[in-house]
Write a structure and sequence with these properties.
The chain is mainly α. The protein has eight helices and two strands; from the N terminus they run E-E-H-H-H-H-H-H-H-H. The protein has a two-stranded antiparallel sheet.
């Protein structure tokens, strides 16, 4: 469906003939992505944390709604209701992590769009469209390219060595320490609600 009006952006998830309001701000879904990708978040907390994060008063729905259907609806929204694309040969390399690269994303939005992410309100789908539209002139897109480059396809030795240096430089360093801080904050936010 072509969406050219903010009023057409999805604000609810329909589960078993029930409209469930969801939080649509991009910051919520960046946090969602961080929780989903964090292998250190205890699985016993992860799904309740995600429900609590994206659905106001989610506990009101839990008796009347199938949790798996709700999770599917939430994941569909997260993927902007787009089906998964089959990949010929999946690239196992992670190009970016929101919690690690937010400074580069912030700078890229300022550079390309003149949008200050600290001061804007934006639906997740708007944010994703703009993120996916960032061009090669932004440092963010360049760094993602370095991280995901397949060194085996670079024939020139000097270029391969240069790209390897860039991959090492932009590798996710101190990810475990950063992840522990995020996990502690997310768990505390969940427990304080």
């Amino acid at each position: 469906m072509l969406i050219l009006d903010k009023r057409d952006l999805q604000k609810t998830i329909r589960i078993e003939n029930q409209e469930i309001e969801i939080r649509t701000d991009f910051r919520t879904w960046i946090q969602f992505s961080c929780i989903v990708s964090d292998k250190y978040v205890d699985e016993n907390y992860k799904i309740p944390m995600l429900f609590d994060l994206v659905i106001p008063n989610y506990e009101l729905y839990m008796e009347n709604v199938d949790s798996l259907e709700l999770l599917k609806g939430i994941l569909d929204f997260y993927k902007c209701n787009k089906p998964d694309k089959p990949e010929k040969k999946p690239n196992k390399k992670v190009g970016f992590l929101f919690d690690y690269d937010m400074d580069l994303i912030f700078a890229a939005f300022m550079q390309q769009y003149g949008i200050n992410l600290l001061r804007t309100n934006m639906h997740w789908w708007e944010f994703k469209a703009l993120l996916n539209g960032l061009n090669d002139d932004t440092k963010f897109v360049q760094v993602v390219g370095y991280r995901t480059a397949d060194l085996s396809k670079i024939k020139d030795k000097k270029e391969r060595a240069r790209m390897k240096e860039l991959q090492d430089y932009y590798a996710f360093k101190n990810r475990e320490t950063h992840s522990k801080e995020l996990r502690k904050k997310s768990k505390q936010n969940y427990l304080n609600r």
